[in-house]
Amino acid sequence: METMRKLWGGAFGDESDSLVDRFGQSIESDLRFWREDVLGSIAHAQMLGRTGILASTETEAIVAGLQRILDEGPDSLPVDVEDIHTAVEVRLGELVGGVAGKLHTARSRNDQVATDTRLFLRGRIDELIPAIKSLQGALYDTARRHRSTVMPGYTHQQPAQPITLGLHQLGHFWAFQRVGRRLIHLREFVNLSPMGSAAVAGTGFPIDRDSTATALGFAAPIPNALDATSDRSFVLDALHWAASAMIDLSRVAQELVLWSGAEYGFVRLADAVTTGSSIMPQKRNPDMAELIRGRTGRAIGNWTAFAATMKALPLGYNRDTQDDKPGLFESLDLVADALGLTELMIRGADWQVERMRDAARHGFSTATDLADFLASTGMPFREAHELVGTLVKRCASGAFEPPIVAEVLHERLTKAEIDEALRRLAVERSVRQRNSLGGPGAAAIGIQLRHARKLLQRPGFASLT
Predict the structure, then answer these.
(1) Together in a domain, 120 and 28
(2) Quick check: is 260 catalytic?
(3) Please, which residues have CB within 8 angstroms of residue 18's CB and are 6 or more apart in sequence?
(4) Mean pLDDT over residues 81-108, rounded?
(5) Please, what is the Cα angle at 269 between 268 and 272, to 5 degrees?
């Protein structure tokens, strides 16, 4: 490895070892936010000019050079350097000469990297917001089309009560409303400016931190220079958000994996999101759903790994925090890709309506309806529960058999009550009568759909209240 160019070294008599250079170099990952570094430098240079710290001609030359770097793109930046800040300053020097060395007046790489990371994260948040809304739109559209499509509802992954596919898809819709709302809160924490805090204690130059914060679109400067340069709680919050979002996406993925299998057969995923086997011609593998499920572990790992890094760091910049960005970049990329892939799977899904309805008719999913009806005739609920359990034991087909139901009930109910009990076994009736708020009945699901539609049409992610 050739000698690495650095922004320091005057007090050192010997060059650092090549292993030290390689181990400490971050330019490869830093290039991800090269644009943010240049934009932050432009705002800083303009502030230096406004306050008279630099002459107007110096500021104009520096800003022009930085603008040219923006136009050239990252390929113009050198990579035989320690980090992105060095790369930009070296390239600026090639473009404008010695005046480039004045850009670093009244700042440090400590406040610079904190500013770059916040700018980058804020930009990614603004890209993720519409992606979440778009996935919610796919869930809403499916729920609206299948508001009456009966399917089994599960608890403990066992058939519980009949629901509708519409109710199920809206369940995920509300989960991603929470994902979006947490992201909006994260943006508020991120949108504060460290610029001007310098290394640890601010600067003696008469800088204007408010103006650089405004120029970069931040809500305000961070009040404490020590906190501003050492804080990475916003990164930890972002990693936690990403892990949480991936967990919700993984739950959708797991259902699609299960339901697209032959044993369920509830859904056929589109060719565009499935893969085949190199040896088994019949296979349609839900690989994208499996990868979302699997890579959720990486997002969780990035969060816990950085939490372990931060747990014992004292105030002040510490080099440990250099490792915040690779995990952050990966986790944000995972969420963005998983949101897009999940939407593709949902929008292209071919739901097997009859198979779902038939599955709901088995597994005794209307047992609670029958017990509730028996209780309504005056029978104690515990006795009704026991009696329905006896019926479940006697019906060997996996569904209630009307002759056996009538035989068991004939000594306890009138013929009219037995006829009504048999009608209560229909899954469609079970769904229709559940019109309490949040249920699958037509009136209740209509309320949910209208609520969801309003939230989709509003910017951001409003509270449910």
Answers:
(1) no
(2) no
(3) 1
(4) 93
(5) 145
User: Is position 244 annotated as part of the catalytic site?
Assistant: no
First to last CA, the chain: 60
State which amino acid sits at residue 248: D
Q: What is the largest CA-CA distance in the chain?
A: 102
Which of 356, 373, 388 delimits the end of a domain? Answer: 356
Are 342 and 405 in a shared domain?
A: no
Confidence class for position 32, pLDDT limits 50, 70, 90: confident
Give the count of beta carbons closer than 10 Å to the beta carbon of residue 275. 13
CA angle centred on 164, ends 162 and 170, rounded to 5°: 130
Distance CA 261, CA 285 (A): 9
Same domain, 98 and 119: no
Angstrom CA distances, 66 to 45, 75, 333, 433, stand at: 10, 14, 28, 67
Please tell me whether residues 225 and 325 are part of one structural domain: yes
142 shares a domain with 255 = yes
369 with 341, same domain: the answer is no
pTM of the model: 0.90
**What is the rounded average pLDDT of the residues 399-425?**
87
Q: Kind and range of the H or E element at 126? A: helix 109-145
Q: Looking at the DSSP assignment, which residues form a beta bridge with residue 134? A: none
Q: Which amino acid is at 169?
A: Q
Quick one: the chain helix, strand, coil %, rounded to 5? 65, 5, 30
Q: Are residues 24 and 149 in the same domain?
A: no
d(CA 63, CA 69): 10
- Mean pLDDT over 37-61 rounds to 97
User: Active-site residue among 18, 277, 376, 436?
Assistant: 277
Three-state SS for 257-286 is HHHCCCCCCCEECCHHHCECCCCCCCCCEC
